[in-house]
Write a structure and sequence with these properties.
Structural class: mainly alpha
CATH architecture of the domain at 65-206: Orthogonal Bundle
Order of helices and strands: HHHHHHHHHH
Keywords: DNA-binding, Transcription, Transcription regulation
Radius of gyration: 21 Å
Domain HTH tetR-type: 16-76
GO molecular function: DNA-binding transcription factor activity; transcription cis-regulatory region binding
Shape: elongated
InterPro entries: Homeodomain-like_sf (IPR009057), HTH-type_TetR-like_transc_reg (IPR050109), HTH_TetR (IPR001647), Tet_transcr_reg_TetR-rel_C_sf (IPR036271)
CATH class of the domain at 65-206: Mainly Alpha
Number of helices: 10
Pfam families: TetR_N
Number of strands: 0
Strand content: under 5%
Helix content: over 70%
CATH superfamily of the domain at 65-206: Tetracycline Repressor, domain 2
C-alpha cells in the first residue's frame, strides 16, 4: 500500500524563483570576495544548481553583475525611501537615512560590500550604480538645499555634503579591517557606538551656528 503524501503546508513560505536566488548568491559572493575572485561555478554551488542554469538566466558573468547592480540599487533606494517617509525636516531626516544604511549593513553586509567593490571596479559597473542612485541623490540635494535656505542647516555645497556623507557611511560600514586598526571591534555594540559617533559628527558639521 502506497503511503499518502503529506498535505502541503499553507503557511510554508513559497520557494523563491531561481533567478532571485542566483542574484542573492551573486550579491553575497561579489560583496564579500570581489567580482574578479568569484566564479559562476561558486554561485551555482551556492544556489544548488548547475552552472548552465546560471548561464540560462544570465548569459555571462558581466551580465550577472549588471543585474546584481540593479538588484542592490533597488534595495538601497527602498530602504532609504521607507526610512524617511513621514520624517520631518531638519537633521532627523539625515539621522533616519544613516540609521537605514546601518540597518542594511548589519542585516546584509555584502550589499554595502558590493558598493565598495563597484567603486573599485570603475566603469561601466560604477557608472551603472551612479545612474540608478542619481534620483535618490537629487532628492537628497534638494532637501539639503531647502534646509540650508531655511536656516535649519549650515550653508554648504549640498552635493559635496552628500558625497562626504556617502563616503563616510559606506566607508565605516564596509572597511572593518581599517577600523580595527584604531581599536574598533565589528560587533553589534561596536556598530551602535560607531553609528552614534558618526551621527554626532554629522550633527556638528551640519548644525547651523
Amino acid at each position: 500500500m502506497n503511503a499518502t503524501p503529506p498535505a502541503p503546508n499553507p503557511l510554508a513560505a513559497p520557494a523563491r524563483p531561481t533567478r532571485a536566488r542566483i542574484l542573492d548568491a551573486a550579491l553575497d559572493r561579489f560583496g564579500t570576495q570581489g567580482f574578479p575572485g568569484t566564479s559562476l561555478d561558486e554561485i551555482a554551488l551556492d544556489v544548488g544548481v548547475r552552472k548552465q542554469t546560471v548561464l540560462y538566466w544570465f548569459a555571462s558573468k558581466d551580465e550577472l553583475l549588471a543585474a546584481t547592480i540593479d538588484h542592490i540599487a533597488g534595495q538601497l533606494v527602498d530602504e532609504i525611501a521607507t526610512a524617511i517617509t513621514g520624517v520631518g525636516v531638519g537633521f532627523v531626516r539625515v539621522e533616519a537615512t544613516v540609521r537605514a544604511v546601518f540597518r542594511t549593513a548589519v542585516r546584509r553586509p555584502a550589499l554595502l560590500g558590493l558598493v565598495r567593490e563597484l567603486n573599485r571596479l570603475g566603469p561601466p559597473a560604477a557608472d551603472q550604480l551612479t545612474a540608478l542612485l542619481s534620483p535618490l541623490v537629487d532628492r537628497a540635494v534638494e532637501f539639503l538645499d531647502a534646509e540650508m535656505a531655511a536656516g535649519r542647516m549650515r550653508r554648504a555645497d549640498p552635493r559635496l555634503t552628500i558625497a562626504l556623507i556617502y563616503a563616510t557611511v559606506v566607508g565605516v560600514a564596509t572597511e572593518p579591517e581599517a577600523l580595527r586598526a584604531v581599536g574598533w571591534q565589528p560587533s553589534a555594540a561596536g556598530l551602535r557606538r560607531l553609528r552614534s559617533e558618526l551621527l554626532a559628527y554629522l550633527r556638528a558639521a551640519l548644525s547651523h551656528d
